[in-house]
# Entry
Amino acid sequence: MSIADWFKARESNRYARIGEGGAKADVPEGVWSKCEECKRIVYAGELAENARVCPHCGFHFGLTAPERIRMLADEGTFEELDAEMASADPLRFEAVKTYAESLAGAREHSGLVEAIVTGKATLAGHRVVLGAMDLAFVGASMGSVVGEKLARVFATAAAEDRGVVLATASGGARMQEGMLSLMQMAKTAAAVERFAESRLPYIVVLTNPTLGGVTASFATLADVILVEPRALVGFAGPRVIEQTIRQNLPKGFQSAESLLAHGMVDDVVPRPELPAKLATLLGHLMPKTGDAA
# Structure
């Protein structure tokens, strides 16, 4: 499904019938959401106006890849790349269910073809290639297709003198593809290295959670690394680390704020401020007309 089709599907609201006898009311599903942090009930319209950030405590609700792109790209400018590129099943992997079944379920659940959506757009008038990962697709794990789409992002940006802006979210490697999945770390890191020769900006936004091979490769190789408040970022999750070292971790370990305090990221940026922050960065980092690339 292309990103345009995804938006059309979202516009078709589903309704629940409420009431008894002849007295019934049509109430759209999803009118209210409960904040995971403060447990308060938030009206969906208010949440949407605030970039899906709780107005009471600042908790950042998850965003889908299409929602993220719609928030960042200038209206009407996004042109999706490699929209139909889909994962195969090279290992014929089978556990509780087959990999093919997992992929089919992820496509039905998310409405996406893969765990990342990429495309050309402008952001505050700056020419960029955008990419956003989606946890609803197999935990936004990085398999062969995700790695290939990312490599093409950097190649396209270099060829067309565009900056790169990526929003990451991932549980790590896609185990159903075995070593082929792990190879994407080297592949994406090499793509970043080649892109650096163009002297064009690469900015990444780490969102909750960004873990595993994504963190260990392209996500932490950007020129500027931003992160959303309270996002969990690391290689292994806190529970795995505690079980390995048999020690309790410090409070806030691997949180966005801890990463900033220890110099791993450049800034913690609340989501409503993100478009303006990216616009400012691109304004400083994109080559001006007449400058050498």
About this structure: Residues 31-61 form one domain. Residues 179-196 form the longest helix (18 residues). The first strand starts at residue 15 and ends at 20. The chain is about 30% helix and 20% strand.
